[in-house]
Write a structure and sequence with these properties.
Strand content: under 5%
Largest sheet: none
Order of helices and strands: HHHH
Number of strands: 0
Number of helices: 4
Radius of gyration: 13 Å
Helix content: over 70%
Shape: flat
Oligomer: single chain
Length: 73
C-alpha cells in the first residue's frame, strides 16, 4: 500500500488503482496521514527543484508537518 500511496502523491498512479488507493486512504487513518505527509514532502521537493534554498525548503517542510500534526489543515 505504501508504494501505491507514494505513486498517488507523485501523480504517477492512474485509473482504478488510484481510485481504490484514495478510497482506502480516506477510510484508514494511518494511510491517510501517510498520504498527507508524502504529498507535503513531494511539494517541498518540487520547490527545491525550482532553486529554492535548501534551508528554506526544510523550514517549510517542518512547518507543514507541524501543521499536519496539530490538525490545522
Amino acid at each position: 500500500m505504501e508504494a501505491l500511496l507514494q505513486q498517488v502523491a507523485d501523480g504517477s498512479l492512474h485509473g482504478i488503482k488510484k481510485y481504490f488507493t484514495l478510497f482506502h486512504a480516506s477510510h484508514c487513518y494511518h494511510c491517510g496521514s501517510f498520504l498527507k505527509r508524502i504529498k507535503t514532502m513531494v511539494s517541498v521537493m518540487r520547490d527545491r527543484k525550482e532553486n529554492i534554498a535548501p534551508d528554506a525548503a526544510m523550514d517549510r517542510l517542518k512547518a507543514q508537518i507541524k501543521d499536519l500534526d496539530s490538525g490545522t489543515k
